[in-house]
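User: Show me sequence and structure for the first protein, then do the same for the second.

Assistant: Starting with the first protein.
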Amino acid sequence: NARDYLKEDQVELILGQENKPLPFEDNAFDVVFTSGVLCIVPLEKAEFLCNEMLRVSRQYVVLNEDLKVQDLRFYSHDFKAIFTQMNAHITSLERNPHFSTYVILVVEKP
């Protein structure tokens, strides 16, 4: 578990609650990052989380997410459309060279 893994480090582990805002102030972080997280939640939750990531970010949200999910237990989302709908600016969209179906998307806060 994460608490055991981080025990030796000086890292505070904060767990969020499902369907609740992230437990951080607006603009709390310079960058908010996910990797393979949003592809495991349905669209409604992914949109909520994208909105929350923008809220707690001062400037950037960086996603490393699977866009061509082939496993029925996972979801494929159009993150460009999700963030565009939130008036955020997509500054970069590139394929992840290490994972063939993953892309790295950099979003700048409006």
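Switching to the second protein now.
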Amino acid sequence: SPELMQQVQKKGTFIRKNLDLINDELNMFETIRGRGLMLGAVLSKAWKGKAPSIVNACQEYGVLVLTAGPDVLRLLPPLNISDEELETGLNRIEKALKYLHAFELSSATQK
């Protein structure tokens, strides 16, 4: 239905904006691609090959994300996800990414 497609577009834009804000702080993504709610965040050079680690960190925070190869984090929420669930999921993804970012920084300085 047109209403569903409108909601999908709105939620897809919301996810992109949130990932852009996270990326402004952490610089983990080269680009975010996709359509509607099928999105892929291509990892930046420093994070190449670390998509599986990001998937694990997100799972620790209660969010299932996928990979599309070793360098792309794939997000594919259900079409009927509520705004509240979407916000909760993105907050958890942000916490997982910040945790992983801090962990990587601390292990890089210990070497």
